[in-house]
C-alpha cells in the first residue's frame, strides 16, 4: 500500500502533467527530423536544362539543403551565388572515384568556395572492385583522400549501393571498409534504401559503429528486389520498384529513432528515376516533415 507521502507525490506529478501536457509528450510527438535535404541527382535532367530554375523549385518545396552531383559547367563561385540566391546551403557533393587522385586538391578548393563540409564518393567502379586487391586499393585511396581533405577542414565520406552487402571471399565489403578505413578520415553516407535492398540492417551498423554516419540517403521501395553483383547504374529492373519516401516498405520510424546513435546530421532525399521529379520530391518532403516518433 502506498504511503501518504508517495500518494501526494504521485498526485502532484499527475496534476503537473495535466497542466503542461506538451512538456511530457516529447517522447511521442517531439522527435522529428532536422536537416532535410535533396540529392540533386533526382533532378539531373532538369539541372542540365535550367540550373538556376531547378534550384528555385527545390527551395520552393521547402528543402533548405542540396547535395550536388555535378555542377553542369558552372564555376564554384557561380554555384555558391545560386544557392545563396535561393536561400539554400550545400553541405555535401558527390564526386567520381577518379577525382580522388590528381584532381582532389582542386575539388577541395571547390568545396570550400561553395561552403560544403563533406565530399562524398558515391561509387567504386566495377573494374576496380573486380581486381583481386580492388577493395584494398579503394581503402588506401579513401584514407589518402580523407587525410588531405581533413587537413583542409572538410570531411570525406563514402556512399554505398547494395553490392557492398554481398559477400566477397566470405566477407561483406562494407564491413571491410568500416574496419580498415580510418574512422576519423572516412565517414559513411549510408544509403538507407540500398543497404536494406542488399539484405543489411542499418541498426546493426549504428550499434557497431556509432557516430560514423553523419549523412544518410532517404529513399523507398514498393517491394524489395532481388539484386546481384552485376548491373550498372540502371540496376536492371530494380528502379521500377523505387517510390516516394513513406510510400514503400521501409520502416522509417524504426531507423530514425536511432539517429543520435548513428550520428546523423543530414537527411538527404533521393529518387534515382522518378516519373515526375518535382512531384516526387514534394511527396517525400511532406512525409518527412510531418513524421513523428
In words, what does this structure look like?
The structure is a single chain. This protein has a single domain (32-290), classed as Alpha-Beta Barrel (TIM Barrel). The strands form 2 sheets. It has an 8-stranded parallel beta barrel with strand order 1-2-3-4-5-6-7-10, surrounded by 4 helices. Strands 8-9 form a two-stranded antiparallel ribbon. By secondary structure, it is of the alpha/beta class. α5 runs parallel beside α6 (104-114). Mean pLDDT is 91; it is low at 23-28. The chain has helices at residues 4-19, 26-29, 44-49, 51-61, 76-85, 104-114, 126-129, 134-151, 173-180, 192-197, 202-208, 252-256, 259-262, 277-290, and strands at 35-39, 65-68, 89-94, 118-121, 155-159, 186-191, 215-218, 220-221, 242-243, 266-269. Helices cover 42% and strands 14% of the residues. The longest helix is centred in the middle third of the chain and has 18 residues, at 134-151.
Write the layout of secondary structure elements.
Layout: H1 4-19, H2 26-29, E1 35-39, H3 44-49, H4 51-61, E2 65-68, H5 76-85, E3 89-94, H6 104-114, E4 118-121, H7 126-129, H8 134-151, E5 155-159, H9 173-180, E6 186-191, H10 192-197, H11 202-208, E7 215-218, E8 220-221, E9 242-243, H12 252-256, H13 259-262, E10 266-269, H14 277-290
Parallel strand pairs: 1-2, 1-10, 2-3, 3-4, 4-5, 5-6, 6-7, 7-10
Antiparallel strand pairs: 8-9
Helix pairs in contact: 5-6
Based on the model shown, name its key terms:
293 residues; alpha/beta; TIM Barrel; 8-stranded parallel β-barrel
CATH architecture: Alpha-Beta Barrel
Strand content: 5-15%
Instruction: Give the % helix.
Output: 40-55%
CATH topology: TIM Barrel
The profile of the biggest β sheet is:
8 strands, parallel, barrel
Q: What order do the SSEs take from the amino end to the carboxyl end, as H and E?
A: HHEHHEHEHEHHEHEHHEEEHHEH
Count of the domains: 1
